Structures
1.
Amino acid sequence: MIFQTIIEPFRIKSVESIRMTTPEERAHFLREAHYNPFLLPSDKVLIDLLTDSGTSAMSNRQWAAMMLGDESYAGAKSWERFFEEVNDLTGMPHILPTHQGRAAERILYGYLGGKGKYFFSNTHFDTTRANIEFSGATAIDLPCPEGKNFDSDEPFKGNLDTAALKKKIVEVGAKNVAAVILTVTNNSGGGQPVSMANAREVSGICRQYHIPLVLDCCRVAENAWFIRHREAEYEHLTYREIAQEMFSLADAAVMSVKKDGLVNMGGFLALRDQASSDACTNLLIITEGFATYGGLSGRDMEAIAVGLEEVFEADYLHYRIRSTAYLGEHIRNKGVPVIYPIGGHAVYVDARRLYPHIPPHEFPGQALVCELYQIGGIRSVEVGSVMFGKYDANGGFVPASQELVRLAIPRRVYTQSHMDYVIEVFDEILRRREQVKGYRITQEPPFLRHFTAHFEPFGAPA
Ligand SMILES: *Cc1c(COP(=O)(O)O)cnc(C)c1O
């Protein structure tokens, strides 16, 4: 007997109340937040799908491990536990603990980068690109062409375009390529997975040209689920073995353990080669901390060591991927345009197709973000012209290439009834779709404006 209902493979020992709000209250809170949910206090949010980063619920085993934290400055027991876990997973001998992913990126890309250097990736995550560009180097995205089609059902839309990679390496000269970065899953590319075949091919190209391959492995466990279920030769391996095989193809790895580490803060840099490790360790000691704790306390390292084991448990991963797909497939069946197939950590709604009457410069994604909060108290994030739109030299608006809204699912936090509620909210979203108006920006900072910009809906009283 195979049951259809996928239950959460845990029971709840400690709870955190969420405060119910009325539509009238939410209209008031939204106005006070200048129609930007980043400016909402979290206690005014019913279901928070802003990010899956650092929002996981820890297990009883992780909390118990925290009590074993050894806070010695050097050579702590907790460091040994952390080292053994990360070393076993990545197969890399040099492990540098950092306070989060971008600290590992700053160290590695600062070391490899610099003026005149190039980085190629399936898609650089925004902090990755920022750290590369800060070093003076250039970051170029080479996503596979099928990733641009939101409706087709290719299994690995997160892949890197290997033909384009070979062409680019020849074009800029192999000695000017600082590294190739494979982001698994491809966060900025809709959370789509990367196949082992693609990773193997990318690795082969890198070895041929003596270019280091870096795995940005924030969601390597979720990616392993897709490989096992979509790449025939991997169905007999465990998820952890699949991840280990992927690490074996790379020369270095950076991880924000705020994702698949199942903790609220932390990261690491793993390296194969001694010379890079020596150079990066110097930078670690200057900016993060001594080599055996870096940016972490002993208790953090204990919780990460346990989280990196739990995240590969078959029941957990199955629940994780299926529950994200549950939300995505249900709203898609109602007629909500989403990126398909559904990725591992989030559902991406195509706001341009949901609101075809709202032009990009009136921010259809922001309109949906506000609707989700107004109707259901749900917090989400715009990934479109608010985040990536620019102004040209004449002050003309240049929209982003797509207008998406991301519903990111925190790990082990919400139950199926929370998701059923979100699905129901979309009924009302669809009912009101033609009345929804666009937004104008009334105040914006020079950088990263999505965090702090103020908005106003068209047609609102001044
Ligand atoms: C989150 C993330 C990072 C950065 O990690 P932080 O812990 O937020 O600094 C880098 N790459 C990818 C793919 C990410 O998802």
Note: The chain has two domains: 23-52+313-457, 60-310.
2.
Amino acid sequence: MKLLTALGVLLVLNMATSSRLVCHMTNWAQYRPSSGKFTSDNIDPFLCTHVIYAMSTINSFNELTPIEWNDDQQFTGLKRLKNINPDLKTLLSVGGTVNGISPFIAMVARAENRATFIKSSITYLRTHNFDGLNLAWEYPAHNGSPEQDKTRFTQLVSELYKAFEDDAKENKKTPLLLTANVAAFIPTIDRAYEVQKITLYLDFINVLTYDYHGHWEAATGHNSPLYSSSMDSGTHVHHNINSSISHWLVNGAPAEKLLLGFPTYGRTYHLSSSATGLGAPANGPADAGPYTRTAGFWSYYETCDYTPSANVGWIPEQQVPYATYGSSWLGYDDKRSFSSKVQYMTANNLGGAHVWTLDMDDFGGSFCSDGAYPLINHLRMSMGFPPKPTTTPAPTTTRDPIADFCRGRPNGLYENPTDKKTYFQCFQGNTYLHHCQPGLIYWDSCKCCNWP
Ligand SMILES: *[C@@H]1O[C@H](CO)[C@@H](O)[C@H](O)[C@H]1NC(C)=O
């Protein structure tokens, strides 16, 4: 009996540590106004296991290249986060489009182009202290050569894998992580990926389980439904998480490498009749959000300003919420839908979760009266991760004197006057409580834990 209990504890611990919570940030979120402005300095170093920095691109010489003028500064911010949480892994994402065309297409077409890209990637990632690469191979297989692009992607992935291994051996370092963001629509999966082959080489695979429905359609549908709805017809019966994940699994992807996508945003419609439910007639998007300023699309923190006055409903078949107000219709995610998706993830033994994005959760806690990162913190807790070594103050709740410790103090380590076995770390005004190893106490003279 004791042994079984011990085994159970081990299994639970193992589950928590082997599962991944991968969070994307975007380098365009820095341009959102006031409280929407987001940079790597806004990241909680203990929230996610991995942070993916989106986005970099490929130049005309086939080299990995940054996009923004201040990417270097933001990379320095990521490095600071890793100094605070040495377990945090950071990855750089490459992809997107240049003039509407994926920069991958020309690069993968020739062996020497791929070699240049691979070499430049390793140098760039090592120089800027990244732990891995994320290939955002999402809209490939156009320009009329889908079969070619499909096998060329496999070639790229296998060559990257080998080069990362060689680099690790040569430089006596941990190999760089190799990951991809991949499509969720069944026809795209079939056209774009040799599933069994690429999954051999990839450390994990983020399935983009959102954008299933949006204002480009003539009737309301949810951005990220867990299951199909009885109103779905034709190919729409596959526009849900369960269909996508089942397809990846049936095609031979190992469950433990697949990460389920959790969107911290919703998609909007403008209703064109008095009907307000799922499948109601619509003609285009609702007004753009004041911070994300993109029609058809609201961040979670923008929905927090909207839902209190809206009629909020739940779609039981699809396990997701929606909200209507006037002629606006919003299909979004909340803590409840995140919990349902975590259950699905666990039941299917998936390798964890990825979030699109950190910058669309209520990262500063100033919109939703629910603390900083309410959705991702809830996700983290639902996945069974241990509590973070943080006591980040929630601006809207009553102040805890300990959480207030670092207000106005410079970054650094401080003794905890009430418990010598612990100490505070101040980082950008937030308080992080750390514990010394058993038997040791904190000494401010060395800013370290040592024998009493
Ligand atoms: C999930 O998808 C599988 C495979 O398509 C299907 O057999 C199953 O019925 C689906 N589950 C639900 C609840 O829709």
Note: The chain has a mean pLDDT of 89.
